[in-house]
Specification:
heterodimer; A: mainly beta; four-stranded antiparallel beta sheet; B: 114 residues; mainly beta; five-stranded antiparallel beta sheet
Chain lengths: 116, 114
Amino acid sequence: EPEVTQTPSHQVTQMGQEVILRCVPISNHLYFYWYRQILGQKVEFLVSFYNNEISEKSEIFDDQFSVERPDGSNFTLKIRSTKLEDSAMYFCASSEELLGGNQPQHFGDGTRLSIL
Amino acid sequence: SQKIEQNSEALNIQEGKTATLTCNYTNYSPAYLQWYRQDPGRGPVFLLLIRENEKEKRKERLKVTFDTTLKQSLFHITASQPADSATYLCALGYYGGATNKLIFGTGTLLAVQP
């Protein structure tokens, strides 16, 4: 069964450094998402992406964050200047054509980001 | 803002029994509701989706109900097995533009004892 893959599985970065988290969504999916989960807390929506542009973003997704689909397969999340509070598990997800507005989302196993 | 509450305590049940997990929400009703399973260190895995005009959905040993009057969804696992032990997340979805963002609850940790 096709799956969403994320790399790296664990990223350790010094505060203030830039980090790029990578995702390969399921190949025929058109909608892409990033969520994050701080340890022991709920999964939180960051951003959704469709047709090569951001369709919605949360308050968490400030100017330090950006997303990109550099080619036909990868989907990346960049944090320009990391802060301690950015430490979390970051999940990428993808879904098929909306058709009525509700589709299951398929999640990767996440990248654990640790900011020192 | 929308608030979602799931069983606050972990749920411990005996193998073979039915597990019932609760998801309550405040404010405006979602267009649909999804249930996911999450194992430690893994991403959420989709289980079931129910729409606002549906009362009940089933898939094998799983059943979900959706009551927009009570603002509640119940998730049932019948004939539970130790392998069902995991955290179960409910997630609310709303129609609106080219997005399908989900708002997650905090999850309920289910432990099925052999």
